[in-house]
Amino acid sequence: MLVHIFSLAASSGVGAGLGIGIGGGLGAVGAGVGIGIIFGKVIESVTRQPEMRDEITSIQWLGFALTEAVFFYGLVAGLLSYVLK
Length: 85
Prior knowledge:
By secondary structure, this protein is mainly α.
């Protein structure tokens, strides 16, 4: 049944749109979870060692940037599956 649905989607051109939706959606979910974990750990770290706040904050921004880069990789992969159908 599932194979039939995928073959129907591929023959109708829906598969390309499905790829961009899944790529963008999973990238957004992953980025949201990653940023939540980073933010929680930063709060935990600053409460344990308040004197390290500046260094922890700079590492936090690096973590945010790398997490958002993963989202854009997912989005680009979805776009490529849409274009290269």
